[in-house]
Amino acid sequence: MTFIVQFLSAMLTALFIENIIFTRALGTSWMFYLIKNPKELLKYTGLLMVVTTLSGLLAYPLRGFVYNSEYRHLLLPVLYILAMAVVYIAVYFFIKYALPKQKELFGLNLGVAVFNCATLGGLLVASNERLDLLSTLGYGIGMSLGFGFATLLLGYGLTRLEYCRVPKIFRGVPIALIYLGLLSLAFYGLIGHQLPT
Fold it and tell me: At CA 182, angle to CA 179 and CA 185, rounded to 5?
């Protein structure tokens, strides 16, 4: 029972409290593309979940060796990038041979889901917090779902802003960034940090 609670705790923390978009602004450039193409969002979120979970699972046993090195700050990102590359190759060949009809649907999304700052950032955050294997997997799934949640929330807000009288100079990306900043402050308040005095 404690394993389930630990897994769900890491997943919900990554989903709501430490949302990868709202707290660290990782993956925002691709998020703006997905707002315009909502059909791609579900595929991208699923691929992001698979890639983050498998990369965390693959790199977790090797993480202990890197922690003992004095160059761990240099080796840890390299370890995760190599794990992400292995997962990319495995998922690519799985889609190519097991799901040949789906190959074109996942083509662009697979490369972007793997080699993305949100994927690497989520793995590094789980590593810096020294989460165990179950929490790392929960954090990866929660981070991916949090990315999809943040994209839906931002997309909904931007469609509502189209009906408002926004000054001409703020239309488009500036109002999107202001809205994203306000949402980030709201989610940052959930964590309970105090502002420096």
Answer: 150
Instruction: Give CA separation, 129 vs 30, 31, 38, 121, 193, in Å.
Output: 26, 25, 32, 12, 17
Distances (CA, A) of 120 to 25, 42, 144: 13, 20, 12
Using left for φ > 0, alpha for ψ between -120 and 50, and beta otherwise, residue 171 falls in beta
Question: φ, ψ for residue 21 (rounded to 5)?
Answer: -85, -50
Planar angle of CA 156, 159, 165, nearest 5 degrees:
135
User: pLDDT digit of tens for each residue in the chain (197 aa)?
Assistant: 788 998 988 898 888 878 888 877 787 777 777 877 777 888 888 888 999 999 999 999 988 888 888 888 899 999 999 999 999 999 989 888 888 777 666 666 788 888 888 888 888 888 888 889 999 999 999 999 998 998 888 888 888 888 888 899 988 888 888 888 888 888 777 666 655 55
Give the global pTM: 0.85
The torsion angles phi and psi of 150, rounded to 5 degrees, stand at -65, -40
- Helix 28-36 vs helix 38-67: angle between axes, to the nearest 10 degrees? 160
**Whole-Å CA distances, 103 to 2, 52, 97:** 39, 20, 9
Six-digit token string for 188: 């940052």
